[in-house]
Amino acid sequence: MTVERPVRTRGLIDTNIMILRRWLDPAELPDEMAITAVTLAELSAGPHEVRGNAMQNSYNEHSERARRLDVLQRAEHEFDPVPFDTEAARAYGRVCASVIAAGRKPRRRIADLMIASIAVAEDLPLYTTNPDDFRGLEALVTINAVTRPSVPHDHAAE
Where is the PIN domain (predicted)? Predict the structure, then answer.
């Protein structure tokens, strides 16, 4: 008797997936997820970017900073980030060439393009709620669009 094992999917998740993961449908995500060192860098910067905003009465900068720290700490605990190594650096040249060929400017999205370069170097599909950030890269990497959830701002700090 042959027992068929279910096919498990592997994939690299973009920073926005890490941030929104608790509200995403797990069926849209790979079974085995990985993050990059670039995502960890973006998450590390996040708490320092929080500023008070008088225009948003419900915005609590302390709660937002705590929420961002929570996401960072969970990422650090759960994942061993894939580095931006020599192969990713080489892939970055191809990624930039593809973006330029699509009529876009690579300097505007350096972190996204570095994440895409790691996906190319590691031969992993990339999961994101922002597929337009990776427009022009379809020949180099599989981009899996994940449905962006509607997250009320007051629940983001939970």
Answer: 18-135
Check if the beta carbon of residue 45 is closer than 8 Å to that of residue 19: no
CA-to-CA dists, residue 98 to 7, 117, 130, angstroms: 31, 11, 18
pTM of the entire predicted model: 0.86
Tell me the CA distances in angstroms from 140 to 7, 38, 96, one per residue in order. Answer: 23, 19, 11
Structural contact between residues 112 and 105, judged by C-beta atoms closer than 8 angstroms: no
- Report the alpha-carbon distance of residue 79 to residue 10 in Å, rounded: 13
CB 156 within 8 A of CB 71: no
pLDDT over threshold 70, residue 40: yes
Interacting residues of 42 by C-beta distance below 8 A, sequence separation 6+: 15, 111
Angle between helix 110-122 and 86-101 (nearest 10): 120
Cβ atoms of residues 117 and 82 within 8 Å: no
Q: How far is CA 88 from CA 106, 112, 122, 149, in A?
A: 15, 13, 8, 30
Q: Give the number of C-alpha atoms closer than 13 A to the C-alpha of residue 96, restricted to the C-beta side.
A: 12
